[in-house]
Structures are given as structure tokens and as C-alpha cells.
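tmp note - N-acetyltransferase domain-containing protein
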Amino acid sequence: MSFEPPRPATAADVDDIHALRRSLEDWMAAHGTVQWPQGSLPRERVATQVDAGEWHVVRDDELGLVGTVRLLWTDPDFWGDDPTPAVYVHGLMVDRRAAGHGLGTALLDWAAARGRDAGVDLFRLDCRTTNPVLRTYYEGYGFRAVGQRDFADFSCTLLERSLR
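out:
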């Protein structure tokens, strides 16, 4: 299975992004993985984020939408008002039908390249402290834990990797 590079999402992708997110929320819940609670990302928020140019998508001719990544250049909700130039990833999703073919790594590679192209030194993301499998995946990609962000109902491990 081969994939084209991500392209910017459009309004026509909103329903598919939202449906992929919901399917992954359901899959994680069924497998006891705590990352995204079911129904935690409303369609309207996806639409707003797509309008802001944050989402990028990968489609397959047969399967349709198979992967997404959301790129940010600041992330005050999770990283505070840190002025360090960085690229942040949220919404890294791979359709379960396309899992195991390197798409997640390809999306991370693509996001890292966007950060380097923009001249930033750091690549950042987070995962719930209750998700050791995802943390191990990110650490295998070269991220290291640099902190934790606590919210009222969950905590996240903050991870970063140098782009230099």
C-alpha cells in the first residue's frame, strides 16, 4: 500500500475526518485504550480547524480517507505560552484498515519536514498519561518526554524531538 503526501483538508473532508475520529474513538474504547473519549471532538470544531488550515489528509483510491494530521505552530492549551518556535502535531489518525503500512510514520515524517521548512527547531506532541502504547510509539520515533500537563479530568505527557 502506498500513499500520496498529505494535502490540506477542505470543507469536503470535514465529515470524513470526523467519522475517522469517531471510529478510532470507538475502536480505542473497545480495546481499553484511553486517549480520546468517545464524542470528544465535535464536527463543528473539526470544521473550524479545517477552515483555519490546520488539518491535512491522505486518501486512498479504494479506502477513501486513510490518514490525517493536524499541524499547529503554537499550542497554548497543552504547552502554555511557550515562545519556543516549534511545530505541534494533534489529530494523528490512521484508519485501522490502513494500519501497519507505515502511514503513521510517514505522517510524522511529513510534519517534521514542514517544521524544518519553517525553520523551527522542535517537533512537539502529547499523549494521555494513560496511553503507554502511544507514548512508546512516539519514543520509538525519537520523541522524549519533557513534561506533563494536568487538566481537570486527564493528564498528558508532553513529548518533543529536535528537528536539527
